[in-house]
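Journal club side-thread
Mid-discussion, someone asked how the predicted structure for our own chain would compare to the paper's figures. Pasting it here so we can look after the session.
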Amino acid sequence: MIITDLANEVSRRVEAVGDGLSEALFEPVIRIGVTGLARSGKTVFITSLVSNLLDRGRMTQVAAISEGRVLGAYLQPQPDVTVPRFDYENHRAALLGPKPHWPESTRAVSELRLSLKVQPAGLLAGLQKPRTVHLDIVDYPGEWLLDLALLDKTYAQWSAEVLDRLAARPEGAAYLDAIHDVDGASQLEEPKAQFLAQRFTEYLNTARDAGYYDCTPGRFLLPGDLAGSPVLTFAPLPESDTPRRSLAREMARRFEAYKAKVVKPFFQDHFARIDRQVVLVDALGAIHRGPKAVEDMRQAMTDILSAFRPGKNAFLNRLLLGKRVERILFAATKADHLHHRQHGKLTAIMEALTRDARDRAQFAGARTQSLSLASLRTTVEETVDHKGRQLDCVRGTLLDGGKQAAFFPGELPEDPNHILSAAKSGSDKWLQEDYQFMAFAPAELSLKPGFGPPHIRLDRAAQFLIGDRL
């Protein structure tokens, strides 16, 4: 195992040297990872971003585009032929077709290469030919990213943490009942291990549906071709003696196998090669569910940041030490569910939510930014008189029923600490406001030539992610 690991490490170093030289001497490649917590809209983000870079009329905040230096854009096959291609064309058809609907969510890693023809800037720009910059966009489930935190934990540590969480949640009662009379030191019986793994998987699905974010191991929710395999047949148990061939000893062995055979390959093959990272968050949905959901989301973002190796990708750094994530964007999605007057408050809440995470990660060189955006705008704004009070509302087509409705979600606080303090204190509900959330369907659109789908601040997100390289 040690010799194999060393060989893999040497192979990755050689590949990194080749990639670094190729990018430095020929056509630069920017690998952008896109992930998100539950129901955050990764597929819509990627689809709208690509569509708006192909038809750039709405991307005025990208400096190279506003200066007229992006001369063209086109899709081409990604270099990694073993990774499924992001299904851009069908996702775009779902969002912009005659009967628009939300596309299916991310269930595995996929990738798409978008190439931009860019005229260099500067004093000597007129003497230089246009160059090609490749954007390799990698889409992967947020649950897989949270799995990286498992690498530093033993089975006993992980079990203790999970069982503590389950004891505080009504969704965990069924699993706790299932293990009430289970003795981890007893002889392994495969049917019992499968039964416990199934009950634990049911809890993870229920917890995710209830809005919790710490639903790991992620492959229990999205097993793919690993469904039914021993590497996904373990579950947390109370600490006990672990004699050979005992249930707890086998659970621990499978937990370690999950880290070695599932989590580490994902890190080595995909995550460790990312230059820029987007983390999408449905902050409005968490606020609607209450303070405990917001605190759970904040802790999940802290775990996410602990997985990154921040720092600047200097040329020698890339060749000798491997890549480090240079920029991380935290984006609160579905900003179109709020009147624009509240967007600044939503951004402030995102900044406050990520503050502890940034400090804990001790970023040495990576840049981070928080932003509120809507990848695809589904609403229009209007002001409604309600009992003598002027309410800034949004109007759209309701996802459930298809009717048009004006909606006021509540007034976010000017001070984001009003949200964070209630979340950190463990309050069951907000003291001053009852924040509502409405699900809207994509609107029917008729796009002008040269214009991508309508959005809110998607161009600012693109400028932060790639503007310095164009």
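Post-session note: Residues 313-322 have pLDDT under 50 and may be disordered.
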